[in-house]
């Protein structure tokens, strides 16, 4: 298992690779990740233009601190090799692989990326992979997918595609995708990956977005996908521990240190029992706060 990934991925903003103006805008929004899309956000006839547009944007635009992601078409679509061939030489930080059904698909992309890295003089292992789980097959193969390759850093839950694949009807409460949504978090936790939550489609409704994002954070997600600039600050705020949460976590971690030194594994703090799981949760809050730049 790899070490816990501390890179902040509170929010992944999608931008169709065919839309130059949106790409320029996205680069300056301060999103943790900007994902230049070649898949479902781009019409089949626009894929060649989108490949060229993404490569050009990666070479010429300043994305500041945002992670530069490119989403290719699914492995087996017949488009993925050309996608990778156009995009990898322009050095994205990360390749997002949609509709992952089995571990072999991740390994194939990784192998191809390795070849491209050596061909283009990019340091081996630089480009990360993120896989999307959005089908029943992907869900059943979760453990194998999550442990498929060392480049893999996160899994994304594609709730709409998943619902369409299993024949679920989407509801506001989301019970129909809860099993998959939770299973992805568990697989990511088991194999040291980050879990990135579903997308909230009603992009003008920020109260609804906040509530849905909070549900994902409560389930254990590290971030969520978005499609519109207005969604970026809402989601990033939910995934940034506030000052009170940071202070409480720091207090737990400090008193745990003292109590452990005194030989106590469980102790009382503010009339509540603290033991290892509480300490671990507090440490996670501090990891998030650090990744978001709120504490050194
Ligand atoms: N990234 C960057 N900028 C974006 C953006 C995005 N994802 N979505 C919208 N914008 C920009 C618009 O260009 C517009 O900028 P302007 O006023 O300077 O021209 C501004 O934000 C406001 O946009 P708005 O008019 O509210 O939305 P819209 O009707 O133009 O677009 C969507 C709505 C959903 C089509 C658009 O948000 C979008 O393309 N999202 C990404 C879709 C996608 O990638 N899907 C596949 C992955 S799930
Ligand atoms: Mg999808």
Short précis:
This protein is of the alpha/beta class and 296 residues long.
What can you see in these coordinates?
The chain is of the alpha/beta class and 296 residues long. It is built from twelve helices and ten strands. The protein is 47% helix and 16% strand. The strands form two sheets. It has an eight-stranded parallel barrel, surrounded by seven helices. The two termini are 26 Å apart. The structure holds coenzyme A and magnesium ion. Residues 13-16, 21-22, 25-26, 37, 40-41, 199, 203, 227-229 line the site of coenzyme A.
What is the topological layout?
Layout: E1 11-16, H1 20-27, E2 33-37, H2 47-60, E3 67-71, H3 80-87, E4 94-97, H4 103-120, E5 128-133, H5 136-140, H6 142-146, E6 152-157, H7 159-166, H8 175-190, E7 194-199, H9 206-219, E8 223-226, H10 231-238, H11 243-261, E9 267-269, E10 272-274, H12 276-291
Parallel strand pairs: 1-2, 1-8, 2-3, 3-4, 4-5, 5-6, 6-7, 7-8
Antiparallel strand pairs: 9-10
The structure holds coenzyme A (COA) and magnesium ion (MG).
